[in-house]
Every structure is written in C-alpha cells, then in structure tokens.
Amino acid sequence: VRLTVLAVIGRLANMNPAHVMPSLRRMVVQLLTELEFARSNRESEECIQLLMVLVRAAENWVRPYVGDIFSTILPRIDDAPAQLASKLLDTVAALARVGGSDLVPYSDELLASIIHALSDTSNATKRMSALQALNNCASFCGLVIDPYIEYPDLFKILTDILKSQPDSKMQLEVMRTIGALGAIDPHRFKDAISDTTDTAVTNAKTTASTGGTNANTGSIVNKGGEGTHRTGNPHVRKADGKLKKKKKQQRPQQNVMTEKQMEPLVGGIPTDSYGATFSNDGYYTRLSVNALLRILENTNDTTFHREAVEALNHMFAPVQNACAPFLD
Question: Rounded to an integer, what distance in angstroms lies between the CA atom of residue 303 and that of residue 195?
Fold first, then answer.
C-alpha cells in the first residue's frame, strides 16, 4: 500500500507541486530517519524500496535531497547482506539518473563499494545491481575512463563476468557498462597496471622483510582491524596507484624513434608496442618506415621496390631534417 501511495504522490508532484512538495519533503525525512534507526534488515529493505519508488516517481522534485539520501545509503552498502546490498545499489542507480553531477563528490567511496560488489561471485543479483549502478554513474555522472585508471582490476572483473556468466541479460549489461565507461588510452592503462603490479611487489617485499625482524608488525599494520596492508583492498590499490603515478610522471617519456632494431609486425602492429603511446606522431612515422623497409629487404617483393622508394621520398620530402633519426 505504501509503495502505491508513494507512486501516486510522485505522479501528483508533477501536476500540482505546490500542494505535494511539503508532504513529499516530510516523507523523505521520515524515510531517512527510519533507515537510520532500522533494527532489522527487513525494515531497512522496506525503507529502501519506498525511497527508490519515490525517487523514480518524482525525479524532478527529489533532486534537492539526492545528496542527503546518498550520504545515508552509501555507508551501508559494503556491510549489508546480499539482498539488502542489491536494493541499495538499485537506489544508487536511480539516484545517479536523477542527481547526475551531484554524486561526483562521493565518487571515490561509491566506486570502491561498486567494485567490491562486482567481486562478490556468490550472488548474481547483487552483481547485476552493481553493474546497473556503475552504468548509470558512467552515463549520468560523468565517471568515464577514470575508474579504469584508479582501479586497474575493473576491466578484468568485467571481462570475467562476461566470460563466466551464462545469463544473457547480465552479459548485455556488462557490454553496456563497458561502452558507457569509454575507451581508455592503451598507454595510460598500461601505466596503471604496471603501477598496481609494482605496488603489490613492493608491499610483498616490505611485508617479508619486516616480518622477519619484528613479529608484531602484522598487529601494528592491522591495528583497529583496518587491514591497510592488504593489496586486495580497492582503497589501498587506488591510493598506492596515485603515489606511483606521481613518481612515474617525473620520469622522461620514452622516445619511440630511438629504438635500435625493427620490430616484428603482426597485422601491421609492432608486437612489442601494444599499449605504447599511439598518440605520438613519431610512432606512425616509424611504423610506416618499418613497413617500407621490410618490403625493400624482401627479395620476393622486387616488383614493389620502386613504389617503396617513391613512398619514402614522398614521406621525407615535407619533414626535411626531421627524417634524420630514420637515416640509419
């Protein structure tokens, strides 16, 4: 009955907001209070369902309260049971559609909770809700590309779900989510993965070295049950990745044109250049020169030698002195 009443109130808010908004505001405050002091998971689920119906029915009039609703829901996602967590994530998806950029200040905690839910292989409903929440956050909140940088394991988690789940609906949702997150620069993604690997190796070495000298180190690091030394924690991965990223930005960038030998080509792409900086202008020039030189070195392609030489002359004529690195 309460669900139906809220749905009707939400529709009436679009027709006569002056009479409905005071009651709607009191209803939001009442539901948030009930959720805050709920004694059981069943009471929490009822409050979440009512909030979700209210958000979907009165999108235009609930937006001023999106921040308050979200700040109440977010801390409960990680520790909630699977069924309640699924409802919370469904509400997050609805709030992302309504609030849009209002959820950006909570993006760090939100992404960590969503990835934690995606990693839970014991409940398909929870993972489906997490996928929908991530899709809506990317579509309506502008959280694109950065989730791949901050959490390099995210792409692997999504592809694993795509391979292992027989449910066509979940596979479709994964593809929608990958499309909404956008295409990442291979160079940036490679750096993010290497940062995570370096951090894991460093933490392992530090733990091994300190474990042999001080038996109480584990209790000190894990003081308060925070578990800050575990590399599996997405918060730790993100924080360490940022530190490593700052150090990596200080290093000189690799010059593609200074490589000494030609690279073997597979489908026209150098085999050791996957994830390289394809935005570098020198990369395309080097790729073209390597392809033409390979034609000139092949005695079976003598019929194309003249065309290859003409192509080289045509390439080097406009650049003049810039062709010096390729003359060797």
Answer: 48
Q: How confident is the model over 92-109, as a mean pLDDT?
A: 89
Q: At CA 313, angle to CA 285 and CA 291, rounded to 5?
A: 45
**Interatomic CA distance for residues 283 and 273, integer angstroms:** 10
Position 166 confidence tier, pLDDT thresholds 50, 70, 90 = confident
Q: Is 57 helix (H, G, I), strand (E, B) or coil?
A: helix
CATH for 2-184 (1.10.530.10, 1.25.10.10, 3.40.50.300, 1.10.4160.10):
1.25.10.10
pTM over 0.90: no
Token pair listed for 148: 């791949």
Confidence of residue 116 (pLDDT cuts 50, 70, 90): very high
Distance CA 73, CA 176 (A): 25
Beta bridge partners of 266: 269
The dihedrals phi and psi of 215, each to the nearest 5 degrees, come to -75, -20
Q: Is 269 helix (H, G, I), strand (E, B) or coil?
A: strand
Q: What is the pLDDT of residues 11-67, one digit of tens each?
A: 887 788 888 888 888 888 888 898 888 888 888 898 998 888 888 888 878 888 888
- Indicate the pLDDT class of residue 190, thresholds 50, 70 and 90: confident
Token pair 């490593």 is found at: 244
List of residues 6+ apart from 31 with CB closer than 8 A: 47, 50, 51, 54
Domain boundaries, the chain: 2-184, 267-326
CA 64 to each of CA 99, 106, 182, 309: distance values in angstroms, whole numbers, following the listed order: 8, 16, 29, 67
Phi and psi torsions of 135, nearest 5°: -60, -45
